[in-house]
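From the methods appendix. Each design record in this collection lists the tokenized structure first, followed by the designed amino acid sequence. Records were kept in a plain field format so they could be parsed without special tools. The example shown here is representative of the layout used throughout.

RECORD:
FOLD TOKENS (336 positions):
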């Protein structure tokens, strides 16, 4: 049975991890030690249902490092320092928010910390444990529809207010795209970036650079072509993935919010009408149950970290490509 320590009780820690932990604890009580979740956040007071501590050193008394999973819910650029602090206190099992790292420098720093302290890091990209992704993964691995040729992901949702009030993400690539990248790497393997672009988020009151629409094109080493488009200025919400095989097209829709944990999948094959299935898909509690099961020793292995490292590398490459394009446009405009 494992204890839980949540570090950072903001939107991610309190709004996402705590409710999903409550579901996971109810679904798999044998995985979790009895008693409240322990929390630490120097900017928060009391949090309902959480045993708050004044320091990480104090947290050790209620959350023994060798039997505790830490949920590090800080922004990616504020991760290395608290992670090293936790490691020095003896914590080794750590769930971190996505993306794993915002750039290659931070990715290298995390790799050094992981090797030095023997950390077992899991990244919160719950789409990998989604019921929809499991069905798509089975379709790819079985070869029932032939070879996978292309994958297209569209992640649209209006995010104006949160982006303006909580400027924790440097670009639109850092918000929704990490989920899609992890799935693409899982389904089609490693890849190289072929194109990337970022648009600003503009309203009648303000303009937020690089926080509007993000586009990304990939060519995977197996020959699969994939693309991601994430529009944080869209008037509608949609999380759609389309897989084209030799003999079928699969279109999946992930749940768009905590209001409804239902996914859909349609399959079109030549000569037949499309078939459609609708099913429950509450991915974050499923992700947490899988992570705690692995930490408890039920499923030994490296988890999904190799996938997350590749996704972080691609994310950094895309941002670098956009930055290089911006510098070129700035120089051209000055010359003009």
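DESIGN:
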């Amino acid at each position: 049975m494992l204890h839980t320590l949540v570090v950072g009780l903001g939107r991610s820690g309190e709004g996402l991890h705590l409710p999903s932990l409550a579901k996971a604890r109810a679904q798999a009580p044998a995985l979790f030690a009895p008693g409240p979740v322990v929390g630490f956040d120097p900017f928060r007071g009391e949090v309902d249902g959480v045993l708050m501590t004044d320091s990480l050193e104090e947290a050790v008394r209620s959350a023994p490092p060798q039997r505790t999973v830490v949920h590090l819910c800080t922004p990616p650029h504020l991760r290395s320092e608290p992670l090293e602090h936790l490691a020095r206190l003896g914590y080794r099992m750590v769930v971190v928010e996505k993306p794993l790292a915002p750039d290659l420098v931070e990715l290298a720093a995390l790799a050094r910390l992981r090797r030095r302290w023997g950390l077992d890091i899991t990244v919160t990209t719950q789409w990998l444990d989604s019921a929809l992704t499991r069905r798509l993964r089975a379709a790819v691995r079985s070869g029932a529809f032939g070879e996978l040729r292309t994958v297209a992901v569209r992640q649209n949702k209006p995010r104006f207010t949160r982006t303006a009030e909580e400027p924790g993400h440097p670009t639109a690539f850092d918000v929704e795209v990490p989920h899609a990248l992890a799935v693409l790497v899982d389904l089609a393997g490693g890849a190289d970036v072929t194109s990337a672009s970022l648009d600003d988020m503009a309203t009648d009151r303000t303009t937020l650079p690089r926080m509007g629409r993000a586009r990304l094109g990939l060519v995977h080493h197996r020959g699969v072509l994939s693309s991601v488009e994430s529009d944080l200025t869209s008037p509608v919400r949609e999380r759609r993935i389309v897989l084209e095989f030799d003999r079928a097209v699969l279109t999946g829709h992930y749940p768009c919010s905590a209001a409804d944990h239902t996914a859909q999948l349609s399959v079109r094959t030549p000569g037949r009408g499309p078939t459609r299935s609708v099913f429950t898909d509450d991915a974050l509690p499923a992700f947490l149950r899988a992570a705690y099961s692995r930490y408890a020793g039920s499923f030994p292995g490296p988890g999904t970290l190799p996938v997350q490292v590749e996704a972080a590398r691609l994310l950094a490459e895309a941002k670098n490509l956009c930055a290089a394009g911006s510098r070129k446009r700035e120089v051209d405009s000055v010359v003009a």
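APPENDIX NOTE: The longest helix spans residues 305-335.
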